Amino acid sequence: MKNLVFVLTLLVYGFGFAQDNKLTGSILDGEFNNEPLAFAKISIKNTNQSVDSDIEGNYILNLTPGKYTLVYEFIGYEPVEIKNVTIDKQNVNLNEVTLKAKKLTFENNLASKG
Predict the structure, then answer these.
(1) pLDDT confidence band for 89 (50 / 70 / 90)
(2) Cα separation of 84 and 67, whole Å?
(3) Is the pLDDT of residue 12 over 50?
(4) Three-state DSSP class for 95?
(5) Is residue 10 pLDDT above 60, yes or no?
(6) Which domains does the chain have, with CATH numbers?
């Protein structure tokens, strides 16, 4: 019985130490003097894992080791993808990502009526 308790204790501690690594970074608003962009969405491409940046534009994602493509989005802004972000056995801090507004184009329907 003592051996069973010992083995179960080791398993519980082993799973506790098999934690994800943290990916941290920040998002800036390229249209407003590179101020922090609050509540932007940061997601892992082809998964349902995402977080929103905080009021200071910072975010934290907990990821298992591997390679990922990050997608940064905010309403009215062009999305940005960063490919091949490698999460190893250490926490990773990415440089700041700057989002810029989408460019709108309008068709001139008056020219075809004349």
Answers:
(1) confident
(2) 5
(3) no
(4) coil
(5) no
(6) 20-101 (2.60.40.1120)
Rounded Cα distance, 51 and 53, in Å: 7
Both tokens of 67, joined, read 């390679």
Both tokens of 23, joined, read 């990916």
Structure tokens belonging to residue 26: 């920040």
Q: Considering only 12-21, 33-42, 60-69, which range has the smallest mean pLDDT?
A: 12-21
Please state, as a whole number, how many other Cβ atoms lie within 10 Å of the Cβ of residue 45: 12
Looking at residue 63, its amino acid is L
Query: What's the confidence (pLDDT) of residue 88?
Result: 87
Query: In angstroms, what CA-CA distances link 42 with 35, 61, 109?
Result: 17, 9, 38
Rounded Cα distance between 90 and 56, Å, is 24
Question: Alpha helix locations (H) across the chain?
Answer: 2-17, 110-113
Single-letter amino acid, residue 96: E
> 78 CB contacts (<8 Å, ≥6 apart)?
99, 100, 101, 102
Provide the residue type at 109 as one letter. Answer: N
